[in-house]
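Researcher: Go.
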Amino acid sequence: MLFGLKRNCADPGKNYLVVGLGNIGAEYADTRHNMGFMILDAWTQASNICFDSKRYGDMAELSWKGRRLYLLKPSTYMNLSGNAVRFWLQKLGIPVENLIVICDDLNIPFGTLRMRKNGSDGGHNGLKNIQECLETSEYTRIRVGIGNNFRNGEQIDFVLGSITDEQKAAMPELSDRVIEGVKNFCTIGPDRAMNYLNTRPKPKPADESEKK
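Model: Structure:
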């Protein structure tokens, strides 16, 4: 059993820990590195629930088709996200296979989503620390593309910079897709959820009034 994980829930298979990665503080609120936070904030607002301050982060709870979902925004800052994930998996008795992490990814274009059941950290410090703390890379993650429109030596400024106004306008639809992906993960399993989420959305047809 990994890192002494306690499975003390009556039915841990129906409990899930959904972690959105980011950095705490108003100065990071709409930065690219806070994609995980922004998506969980959108989820709680749409569900009319609130986060409560807990140990190692802010937590919200909701039910979905007989499942209990715990939404976590770690307060440890990105590089120590694993401490919060490990603590809450243990405290809630949730198995690692019911963990899903939402994070930014500069290796894919903005708006592109990739769900994976395992894999490397891809240079993401939050995922790297989670892997170190859990002693495994066998957990599901949803990578949210932020693009890589920066010059050599400007990566940190880019990921800690604010998303554009155009990207802010796209966030509601993007958040909805991620939320649907998580719900599918919890109900129909990771393989089918990946088939849905990893398919690029078809472009919307042009408005008839614009056709000439």
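Model: Confidence is low (pLDDT under 50) at residues 1-10, 206-212.
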